[in-house]
Amino acid sequence: MTTYLITGANRGIGYEYCRQLLNRGDLPIAVCRNSSPELDALGIRVVKGIDLTQDQDLASLQSQLQGEKIDVLLNNAGIIESVSLASLDIESIRRQFEVNALSPLRVTHVLLGNLASGSKVVMMTSRMGSIDDNTSGGSYGYRMSKVALCMAGKSLAQDLRSRGIAVGILHPGLVQTRMTGFSGITPETAVHGLLARIDELNLDNTGTFWHSNGEVLPW
Ligand SMILES: NC(=O)c1ccc[n+]([C@@H]2O[C@H](COP(=O)([O-])OP(=O)(O)OC[C@H]3O[C@@H](n4cnc5c(N)ncnc54)[C@H](OP(=O)(O)O)[C@@H]3O)[C@@H](O)[C@H]2O)c1
Fold first, then answer.
1. d(CA 55, CA 110)
2. What is the distance between the alpha carbons of residues 117 and 79, in angstroms, rounded to a whole number?
3. Which of 5, 46, 79 maximizes ligand 1 atoms within 8 Å of its Cβ, making it the mutation to test the pocket?
4. Cross-strand pairs, 3
5. Separation of 157 CA from ligand 1 center, angstroms?
6. What is the position in ligand 1's atom list of the atom closest to the CA of 14?
7. Which residue has its alpha carbon closest to ligand 1 atom 1?
8. Residue 218: inside a domain, yes or no?
């Protein structure tokens, strides 16, 4: 059985990862601040009370997982807050960096001891973190934090290659979750594609920036 650890698992794409992984016979471990009735209903292990920006919560996550092998670490939790040039909210940009860029790197760092040769790390980024693809501007905090996340993913791909660990940098598409006001493709469709990408992730394609539909995205 393959063990997946998923952050942001109480709703949206993270919850859907848990649901599909369970259905296909894998072993999802859900990490969240607070669980949800849907997540509880899956009957899987839920590590609650983990705010990914808090040192003590990351230490708690590390100790609760001590000695357990993780095959796939899914850094999924994220936030979006609108920041335009006209209303440049620096605190908001900082918050988005904390959650979207720093937390996935910190989670990966505290769980490095749980990863072994053949394990995979996934960064859930966004096409909005593609510099080449930016034709509409704005969204300073989200775009900048996701670019930084892409770069963290690329460095991890280099640094973890010698340990046999592959890193995927994935965009789900525009997905019907609270983040988007429930517009776009269904979480079912997005996660179906994301899991196909994760299944095909290996040391030859490590560090690739993929759309869930299989398209390789420009940096
Ligand atoms: N939906 C899209 O169209 C889309 C497109 C591109 C990329 N993405 C990326 O895909 C990922 C999942 O997005 P989603 O659409 O599923 O979003 P969502 O429904 O808004 O869910 C976000 C998840 O992140 C968690 N989270 C936020 N801040 C956290 C923190 N400080 N500590 C722990 N957990 C935290 C939330 O937990 P709480 O319930 O406790 O707030 C929630 O579980 C994100 O990284 C997002 O940027 C989504």
1. 10
2. 31
3. 79
4. 27
5. 23
6. 16
7. 175
8. no
Range of the domain at 188: 3-211
CATH code (residue 23): 3.40.50.720
Assigned domain for 217 exists: no
73-103 confidence digits (pLDDT tens) = 999 999 999 999 999 999 999 999 999 999 9
Residue 216 in any domain: the answer is no
Look at residue 219 and tell me if it is in a domain.
Answer: no
Cα separation values, 176 from 76, 92, 129, 181, Å? 15, 23, 19, 7
Q: How far is the CA of 162 from the centre of ligand 1 (A)?
A: 31
Through-space distance between the first and last CA atoms of the chain, rounded to whole angstroms: 34
SS3 for 160-212 is HHCCCCEEEEEECCCECCHHHCCCCECHHHHHHHHHHHHHHCCCCCCCCEEEC
180 CB within 6 A, ligand 1: yes
Q: How many distinct structural domains can be found in the chain? A: 1
Instruction: Report pLDDT digits (tens) over 7-61.
Output: 999 999 999 999 999 999 999 999 999 999 999 999 999 999 999 999 999 999 9
Tell me the pTM.
Answer: 0.98
